[in-house]
Amino acid sequence: MMDQSAGGAADLSMGDRAVKVMTLNIWGYGHSWERRRRLIIDVIDAESPDIIGLQEVYSDPRFDEDGRNQAQQIVRSLPQYNLVCSLHRHPPPRDIKPEEYPFIQTGLAIMSRHPIIESGHISLPYSVHVNPHPRMVLASRIRSPLGEICFFVTHLSTHEPDRPTEALMLADFIHDFSRSSPAVVVGDFNETPDEPVVLFMKGKGEIHGRSLGFRDAWEEANPSGEGYTHRDRRIDYIFVDPSIKVLDCRLVADKPDSEGYYPSDHYGVLAAITF
Known about the structure:
single chain, alpha+beta, six-stranded mixed beta sheet, globular
């Protein structure tokens, strides 16, 4: 495997020498989903990432298309991708009885142009009455052209006290699932680069005496770039372990269509890596 070094201005179309990985929070069903779905499909089709991690993937019987959740709808138009999902029941508001609330699920998905050998997921603790979206981690072991790679996607809580425990559980899951394979972790961490969990991921801060040593692909390739992904904050990340070299990293799904619609309220992040 190659040692990590600072990413340069490499072309993201690196062919067989690179694997392209992407993350995107797709913003659920609201805000003109059918139009946004087409825009998301167009971005993926144009960029052709090898592996994609999606967050805020919904299944809602009122809006699912032929029983398909949002990720399944996307892949229906992109049959070159394999798909795994992890969706959990969205808890009803406190003023609505569970039996009167639609069976809405929300969660994560991984899309891969290459064979998915193994998948797994864990649930993360979260403060249900503060931020009712279920939190989890989804992982896949993928046979890429460069060899096996473990790909993790997560979406951490918006409630700050939840995130340190979620981060420690994420770290344990990465260790247990990836074993000796190179690992990439993507997702919406709901933290800026100088906040505790992101510092923990990069080995620049500790939680209960522990830290990881992953590298932030955006920082590797764009050391002076802001890279905002949600309004005026950078909260969406691609982290790579030290065995992986970042060739380039940039924002995607960051431009509106002719009528001002964006694919999501988050921009996506796309990185070219090698190992």
